[in-house]
Amino acid sequence: MSSDQPDPLRQEISTLVARFHAARHAAVPFVPGVSPVPVSGRVFGAEELQTLVESSLDFWLTTGRFNARFEQELGAFLANRHVLTVNSGSSANLVAMAAMTSSQAWGESALRPGDEVITVAAGFPTTLNPILIHGLTPVFLDLSLPDYNIDVTLLDEAVGPRTRAIMVAHTLGNPFNLEQVTRVAQKHGLRLIEDCCDALGSTYQGRLVGTFGDVGTLSFYPAHHITMGEGGAVFSDNGALNQAMESIRDWGRSCFCPPGRDNTCKRRFDWQLGELPHGYDHKYIYSHLGYNLKITDMQASVGVAQLQRLPEFIQRRKHNFRRLREGLADLESVFVLPEPTPGSDPAWFGFLLMLREEMPFERAALLRFLDASRIGFRLLFGGNLLRQPYMIGRPHRVVGSLEHTDAIMHRAFWVGTYPGLQDVHIDYIVERIHQFVREQGVNP
User: Fold this and answer.
1) Cα–chain-centroid distance for residue 1?
2) How far apart are CA 8 and CA 129, in angstroms?
3) How far is CA 230 from the centre of its chain?
4) Reduced to 3 states, what is the DSSP secondary structure of residue 204?
5) pLDDT tens digits, one per residue of 139-171
6) Catalytic residue chosen out of the listed positions 224, 225, 288, 404
7) Which of 145, 182, 265, 402 sits most deeply, having the most CB atoms within 10 A of its CB?
8) Is residue 163 within 8 Å of residue 118, measured between CB atoms?
9) DSSP 142
């Protein structure tokens, strides 16, 4: 593996890569109605290509020096949390929930099949799926409006004799009410997993999301706040939990040697665990049901460069949200417009609109209009997950109604706030939505 010492040949390659980026990835002027306005996307410069090529020259094809640097620098950003990269945000959620079942981390209080986990029905499947995979029972709550987050008024009622944890995402970057969620978690001794895949950089009462619960999760898919193509991370300040998550990520093994290194513990042949013979090679002792969920160093190298842009990305997302909110403020009678949770400062992932029930047109008509205008949009992921085919017949519990969840499933969608959108794109979105509303004969 290469050192960080200057290398004239590498420097020459890096210079050529910068020239390539300038020639092949130059910005293209926006033409309304012709140029696409994506809902999300990657934003990168020459630096990402340079670090990617630099890592490829090492030809270190698993995790290595760039991954170590990325984990360290991201951990520093996240209030000095210990960060472990994984190959996706979905895997991050899987590792986080698997670690809640670890007797090594939790002893007798580890989650067991049949225990309950509070969550919401409106969201992305892989926030829910780790609960099901581990034989746990989801307890579904509705969302509240206009923050589109978990309805905290039902939390105490949702806690039953076997409720052991809460696992919820911060909807489109908007923090849920962490004051109430942590209050209930502490009152009832519940674990808290914060799915921050859409919320890197969002804060609640001045504190970063993901640092309130036992563990936070992130995604680095191209749609997210920073990207490495595929990738994700789990982070925590709980030493025993971190050790369990690292084991689960790395095949479930007990050994904590990094790739390419042996005998870090200096006791490789001195362990006796399980019913294995004394001295069995520690590299092949498995303390958890695990997987191989590591990323490559080439992915991590892109993340290292992206981290340098994160403050700029966060500010741009906030700016785009404000411009959309101000531009559509006169359509409050047409849409339920999103509002930040009181006490929060979101790094918005998207701008969610929900048609009011009395409108004389359906969502599909508006979405067809936006599509013809080359404006990207998405629904709120799986809508009401209980309506999805794969959920039929699975054990669950519902507390209260899912009225808002169903309304969102039928009438809501979101447009982009990602940093690749400039004011000209945002203004075009605002203009086209106004145009559609006028054509429907609606007078706001």
Assistant:
1) 31
2) 49
3) 12
4) strand
5) 999 999 999 999 999 999 999 999 999 999 999
6) 224
7) 402
8) yes
9) P
- Stated as kind and residue range, the H or E segment containing 166 is strand 163-169
Task: Name residue, tokens 């809902």.
Answer: 39
- Of 75, 141, 135, 87, residue with least CA distance to 111: 135
Residue 163, classed as helix, strand or coil, is strand
73-109 pLDDT, tens per residue? 999 999 989 999 999 999 999 999 999 999 999 999 9
Is 224 part of the annotated catalytic residue set?
yes
Angle between helices 297-327 and 423-439 (to 10 degrees): 50
Reported as a single tens digit per residue, the pLDDT across 340-397 is 999 999 999 999 999 999 999 999 999 999 999 999 999 999 999 999 999 999 999 9
Tell me 238's DSSP state.
-
335-336/350-355 β-pairing: antiparallel
Instruction: Report whether 128 contacts 385 (CB < 8 A).
Output: yes
pLDDT classification of 62: cutoffs 50, 70, 90: very high
Contact yes or no for 300/309 (Cβ under 8 A): no
* Cα–Cα dist 128/120, whole Å: 8
* Side chain identity at residue 368, one-letter code: R
